[in-house]
Amino acid sequence: MSSLQRLADWTIVAFVVSTMLTMGMSQPLAEVVAPLRKPLAVLAALVVNFVAAPLLAIILVRLVPLAPAHATGLLLIGTAAGAPFGPKLAAIAHRSPAHAVAQMILLMGGSLVFMPLAVPLLVPGLDADAAAIARPLLLFMVIPLALGFALALFRRRWIDAVRAGARVVSGATFVALIILIIGLNFATIMSAVGSFAIGTYALYLLALAGIGYLAGAVDRDTRTICALAAASRNIPAALVVAGAGVADRAVAATLVVAFVVSLAVLLSLAWTLRPREQRRRADHRLAA
To answer: In this predicted structure, what is the pLDDT of residue 52?
Structure first.
């Protein structure tokens, strides 16, 4: 493994841990739990992510002439929800981070149950080990988030400094991660140009965002969170499954391409879903 690849791996860890720590220290636990007490909203999120998402992946695989590795990658993505980027996207869209964290926790837990059941059915010969998927999620997401909630209870001055530092690390590593992922996998990304993979992945994410937006038709904030959560597929979890059970390394490369496509789509989507006044102010700052 090259030094840059190791750097990218550690950058992912630093981004996820710092983001979860920041979310835990910034959002009162009661506000995070509140959205999970709404049965209809919870049911809508589960149906969109664990019924509509895999069904849409199956439909696209059957309709679009994808290469076998691309088709397998799309099916794996269809089973994996609860990406760690959800709260960051909600922040970009100027929506409730607490609601985004609640959705992430719900969908992450759902993926731990759903993937071991669905993956062998969608991709015969491939198994999803729940323990292997849960281990990185617990270490890098659940524990830092819980630690953040615990630290926030102290209400000490140094907590503000820790939270500010974690927020800076989260923002810096997010930018570094984008640069490293694209730079290290540029050849793989270019090899997908001309195939149906990139367009199919983009179409899949946009369609899921649309379904999530309609399913969350309670208020604008809920619609935006549902749309971003639905389109934010848990590609790290899919990579765990692919790395453990797929002999064809092209599947892992396909998931990297999907990750890059999802970054482009989700960042654009989060920006588009910002309140109009927030977009106008940001445009004025850029123009100045």
So the answer is: 96
